[in-house]
Amino acid sequence: MRLADRPLTDGDRPFEEIDIPLERDLFLRSLLRELAGTLEDVVGIDEAAGYISIVGGAIGDQINQTYRQSLGVKNLTRDQVAAVLVDLKRRIQGEFYIIEEREDSIVLGNNACPFGRLVEGRPSLCMMTSNVFGSITAENLGYARVEIQEAIALGHPDCRVVVHLKPTDAPDPHAREYFKKAE
Prior knowledge:
The longest helix has 27 residues, at 45-71. This protein is α+β, with helices and mostly antiparallel strands. Helix 1 (24-43) crosses helix 2 (45-71), helix 2 (45-71) packs across helix 4 and helix 3 (78-91) packs antiparallel against helix 4 (126-141). The chain has helices at residues 24-43, 45-71, 78-91, 126-141; strands at residues 96-102, 105-110, 143-150, 159-164, 175-179.
């Protein structure tokens, strides 16, 4: 019998029957947590957030295209953008909801991070939310400034994210700006 054909057991039962909390989703979230942690340790939190923001922007562009194609529109309306921000997080097991909509902003809350508990202590992973929200909003509405006021990653019980829709003259070191890409 070849080694590859021999069943894996612990002597009493097949490994498939052993209760081990390991599956693809947990593995990938753990992988991202460790990658973010390594980046934070090696280059610092700000630089790690910069690297993760590049990935978040690319993912945001992909998600934006998917929603536009699925809805059959060239650009999402403001109402559609707000709905997409909530829906995309729902689809990846986040629990985002709209707290308030104003003329110049959309305020979102979140009870559960898509990374689960693995986000705790990894604030650079919040750049995924910032860049996905920012790129989708800016590509459809022309501009976004995303401010993460509270984050589960930083030990808060929930997240609070403000997507500002109009530029301001006052610099905001706690927010990131996003602009529509030239066509």
